[in-house]
Amino acid sequence: MRRSVIEHNPSGRQGNELRVALIGAGRHAQHHARAILRCPGAKLVAVADPSDSAQSAMRGIVSDVKGYGTPEGMLAAERFDVVHICTPPASHASLARMALTAGSHIYVEKPFTERTEDAQRILEEAQAKKLLVCAGHQLLYEGPTTVLEQYLPSIGEVAHIESYFSFRTVRHAPGGRKVLRADHQLLDILPHPVYMMLHVLERAVRGQTALVSLEVNQAGTVHALIRRGSVTGTLVVTLEGRPVESYLRVVGKNGSIFSDYVRSTTQRAIGPGSSGIDKLLAPYRQAWQLLAGTTASMARRFFKQQRSYPGLAELFSAFYQAVRSNAPSPLSPEILLETVRICERVAEDLKRAEMRALAAAAPRSVESHGVLLTGGTGFLGRSVAQALLVRGRPIRIVARREPSPWERIGGVEYVVSDVSHGADAQLFKGIDTVIHAAAETAGGWEEHQRNSLDATANMLKGSAGAGVKQFIQVSSLAVLAQGKGDPIGDSHPLEPNSRGSGPYVWGKLESERLAMALGQELGVSVKIVRPGALVDYSQFDPPGRLGKRLGNVFVAVGSSSDRLGVVDVEFAGRFLAWMTDHWQDSPSHLNLLDPVLPTKRELLEQLRRMNPDLTVLWLPRIVLLPLSWCATLAQKLLRPGKPAINLAKVFSVLQYDTATVALLAKQVNGATGQKDAHEGS
């Protein structure tokens, strides 16, 4: 019989209250802390994390929680009923075994472990010590799963299961935290759809589970067939598919169930559905279930003001109850192990795809006449890199994180370095021109200080130290002061109130000023390029000043005849590449725009080609002005002491003088034999 929790708890505990500890105090661990607060009979008493700021954030949630710098120190100092492990996946196995050795039941965030043998060993050790193991599969306790399990017997013998998950990768994290590269993000979420499929297969049919086939492409899409007994299910996880969805569809001989984990709804079609009246009414019945279910789900989230993941507190409560009552863990050890096995297979296939992609994208060594490009993995940066390759220029891209193999451009050398902390001299070896296109695009003032201003200073100092004389600082049109009727030219004054438009504009504007001052001081020739709103006419995404998309409705602001300051990203890339070879012909300051600016009507036509079902509503400026006043007042009341963002200014339409860029575009396009995308559309 498994040891009672009371036997190994310190004396003085009140009643049957469980003592809970966290290893890791990051953002996900903070979700754990909030969920633990919602679990009766459990108390978070300690946390282990080397970061003082992370411990401080945790004390903001649980004021009396004890902080330890290491898990070893925490586990040696106190005894706990349950230890939650919320650290990077590579550390899960060793920390799980450490907590088991200390006599604690364990909850390990997903992915449980990276290797099957580690998972097997943990489960065996837990069984030998009569301790329970749980993992981060809270979808089992979300509303859609509860409804699915309620109606699963009603659909009869299961014939098919489909588990689908599409998601958008995270490119920026608050506080400057390092973001996982795309394929690693895929592996991070993969256990969710895998475990859900295996859970339903276990409920539906007896037998052994087998991975029948697996295909992983290098762009991050997984296709798998998983069989248990006589039932085969399909698993699809993709970084590319849109819209973002997460669902489980179970088809039986007497109906089907569709559980939607994005909207937290379940639609069911129970019965054979073969008669004419069934075929007629079924769509209306399911549409009503979707409408009513989505409305109820959103209302629950709003009124509950839930700050932890749905299902997390419910899973914790079930696990804690199992600990108290000596019952089995709410997660099946067999399925937990099979989940790790399938995820490990996917990771192995991704690794093989990575090796193939790396071989195909072999870099060209930068020995001389090279271009150092920051921000080269971004929207503009990739276009610049491709244009430089056409010109035969060796390229070294410096990035804050290692790009996925399929994100790399063949022939380009990639170096991982955070230039906000300094620019190593090796970055500039063989370089004659620097294009500094990297900048912070999210976060607050500290992030923009570090990743925009500090990075600019470090890149200029590094350039000067290495003898690099050509430096292009990529700025933004947003740094320019509002015009007073006359078209805005390349030498237009900068915005006098740099903080008035938020951290992004402040970071860009002050970086531009800093680049010019440092360049003059250090003897580096600095040229400022301010691209307009970047657009890709082949895969059109509307610029912010055009308006706002709300579902299937686009609210366009202003007049259809207004011309917007945009630039085709391919043209912008060619222009910056051209500058590296024509330094003397390039102006010191340039507003990089399409030579002929498109009207809002023309941009909306582009948008409608990509979205034929889109409805466009126009918001005239006469209506925008009072809305902007109200929004400014609300910001001042809700955020006293912080700058208010002027919506009328954000959506203002400025007139630009494109004479210089139009003249230079003839040279740029003449050198490549290409036209500006807007001119040719």
TrEMBL record:
What InterPro entries does this protein map onto?
A: Epimerase_deHydtase, Gfo/Idh/MocA-like_OxRdtase_N, Gfo/Idh/MocA_oxidoreduct, NAD(P)-bd_dom_sf
For the Gfo/Idh/MocA-like oxidoreductase N-terminal domain, which residue ranges apply? 18-137
Q: Which Gene3D superfamilies match?
A: Dihydrodipicolinate Reductase, domain 2 (3.30.360.10), NAD(P)-binding Rossmann-like Domain (3.40.50.720)
A GO MF annotation of the entry reads: nucleotide binding
**Organism of origin:** Nitrospira japonica
Q: Name one Pfam family in it.
A: GFO_IDH_MocA
Q: What is this protein called?
A: Oxidoreductase
Record-stated family: Belongs to the Gfo/Idh/MocA family.
Keyword Oxidoreductase included in the entry's annotation: yes
